[in-house]
């Protein structure tokens, strides 16, 4: 294996902008330090000035002969057969392409380019180091055989459901127990490359069936993401309607735990802000990497990675989370709030994403085609200015924009002029059924407005008016409730607590009456220019 250096004009050797594959894998946790295992030879890479990296046996090394597995790919197996392309002669492998000298400036620069590298690859492969293709197929066949309930279980609805949940867990863990799914650094690669193909320990393509040519039906990461998302929907339905099995059933809890550990749920939403929540289930030797390991997805360089940075600067994880949140507020004000907190945040921290942030459960923001999640907000105008302000030594969110009494919106949603009503998604534990139709959405909104009569909606985003007057849109807003005066945070600013997010139907065709239509579109006197702090 030879490492080819970049040259001006984007040349590698004699090739200009060559097509290449990228390999996503994990090995850092098994990297050998010092004189550990002197018998283990490093990966032989020619053309590099740094030492060859070594790892513990049975990680990057084939356990049968101790030699590193050489992976050979033929481009024709992955290209459109009707449009044959030139062979792919280049691969990107971090130990061969990144200076492995610890804490070197070159290493820091290259690590900061990972997002660009993986986005530019012709094809990406996720290398599972603990599984062979035959082992996977054998286990899958065994699961199919075990899925059939016994005669006694068939008569018992509970036992039948429990068997199904247990099989689902095993199917997920077949892949998710591989170290690739617990690595923090592979998380952003998974987000960037949902169409990555799984390859096994020996470099074989993984497929869902026993076929001679796995390239005809390769297993994609997106398939596994979709499967985990579907399984979580089943778990949630059992949690909200515990008629068949109990909430504390060990099979149900075990399946939920396996799904959460896999980190796939945050990837299904395609919104990058959910990655911080997914990162809490990943292993890392440095807690700060929970931010450093995902910041490239946003094209941010934070903390020590900033272009101009004090070399002695070493921000804490909380400071990095504040910095990430602040950049999102100013650069992506709408997207910065499109999440819900699984657990209520500490006072003053509700303005930014955290490791408790989860994808919105209600709002119609999911880009089901995968890819760039921010594309959901293309064509939507930001209607509020968001920033931060320090109050009593704590960074709070600060807003300026139009706000409307939530009770006024609920009044319209509940009328025959409400154009389908609205949807709210509240922070904290889920209390409503996962099957959330218009009637339940209306009940939830009414209940919240009665519990919090002084709540307001800050208008975050509104779709640009289309050429067609009959097009409809769904504005998004931030639900805010007044903070109790006991906090005494500020005498000059109104202080609010973030309660969740909301969305509602409207139309550019004013057939509901000018006043109702104007209110739904964030206009007229019901919307008042407001400013304050929130957290």
Automatic annotation (TrEMBL):
Identify the residues that the record assigns to the Heterokaryon incompatibility domain, covering every copy: 20-189
Which Pfam families has this protein been placed in? HET
Q: Which domain of life is it from?
A: Eukaryota
Classification via InterPro entries: HET, HetReg/Transcr_Mod
What PANTHER family does the record tag this protein with? ANKYRIN REPEAT DOMAIN-CONTAINING PROTEIN 39 HOMOLOG-RELATED (PTHR24148), HETEROKARYON INCOMPATIBILITY DOMAIN-CONTAINING PROTEIN (PTHR24148:SF64)
What is the protein's given name? Heterokaryon incompatibility domain-containing protein
Source organism of the structure: Colletotrichum phormii
């Amino acid at each position: 294996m030879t490492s080819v250096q970049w040259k001006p004009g984007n040349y590698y050797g004699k090739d200009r902008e060559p097509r290449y594959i990228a390999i996503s894998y994990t090995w850092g946790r098994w990297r050998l330090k010092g004189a550990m295992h002197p018998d283990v030879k490093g990966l032989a890479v020619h053309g590099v000035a740094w030492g060859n990296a070594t790892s513990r046996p049975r990680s990057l090394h084939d356990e049968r002969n101790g030699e590193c597995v050489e992976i050979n790919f033929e481009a024709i197996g992955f290209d459109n057969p009707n449009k044959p392309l030139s062979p792919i002669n280049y691969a990107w492998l971090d130990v061969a392409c990144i200076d492995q000298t610890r804490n070197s400036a070159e290493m820091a620069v290259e690590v900061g380019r990972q997002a660009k590298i993986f986005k530019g690859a012709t094809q990406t492969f996720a290398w599972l180091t603990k599984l062979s293709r035959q082992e996977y197929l054998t286990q899958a066949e065994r699961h199919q055989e075990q899925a059939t309930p016994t005669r006694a279980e068939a008569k018992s609805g509970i036992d039948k459901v429990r068997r199904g949940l247990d099989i689902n867990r095993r199917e997920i863990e077949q892949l998710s127990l591989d170290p690739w799914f617990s690595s923090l650094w592979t998380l952003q690669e998974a987000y960037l490359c949902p169409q990555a193909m799984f390859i096994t320990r020996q470099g074989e393509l993984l497929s869902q069936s026993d076929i001679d040519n796995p390239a005809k039906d390769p297993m994609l990461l997106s398939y596994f993401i979709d499967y985990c998302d579907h399984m979580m929907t089943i778990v949630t339905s059992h949690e909200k309607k515990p008629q068949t099995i109990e909430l504390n059933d060990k099979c149900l809890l075990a399946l939920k735990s396996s799904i959460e550990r896999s980190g796939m749920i945050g990837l299904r939403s395609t919104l990058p802000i959910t990655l911080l929540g997914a990162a809490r289930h990943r292993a890392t030797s440095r807690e700060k990497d929970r931010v450093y390991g995902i910041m490239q997805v946003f094209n941010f360089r934070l903390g020590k990675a900033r272009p101009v940075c004090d070399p002695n600067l070493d921000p804490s994880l909380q400071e990095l989370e504040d910095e990430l949140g602040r950049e999102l507020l100013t650069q992506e004000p709408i997207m910065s709030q499109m999440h819900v907190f699984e657990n209520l945040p500490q006072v003053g921290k509700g303005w930014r994403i955290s490791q408790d942030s989860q994808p919105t459960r209600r709002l119609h923001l999911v880009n089901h085609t995968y890819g760039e999640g921010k594309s959901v907000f293309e064509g939507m105008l930001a209607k509020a200015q968001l920033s931060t302000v320090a109050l009593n030594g704590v960074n709070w969110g600060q807003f300026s924009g139009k706000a409307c009494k939530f009770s006024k919106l609920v009044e319209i949603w509940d009328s025959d002029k409400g154009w389908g009503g609205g949807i709210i998604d509240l922070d904290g534990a889920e209390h409503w059924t996962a099957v959330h139709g218009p009637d339940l959405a209306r009940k939830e909104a009414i209940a919240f407005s009665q519990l919090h009569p002084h709540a307001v909606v800050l208008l975050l985003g509104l779709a640009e008016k289309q050429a067609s007057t009959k097009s409809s849109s769904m504005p998004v807003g931030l639900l805010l409730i007044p903070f109790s005066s006991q906090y005494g945070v500020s005498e000059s600013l109104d202080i609010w607590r973030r309660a969740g997010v909301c969305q509602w139907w409207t139309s550019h065709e004013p057939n509901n009456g000018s006043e109702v239509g104007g209110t739904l579109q964030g206009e007229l006197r019901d919307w008042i220019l407001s400013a304050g702090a929130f957290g």
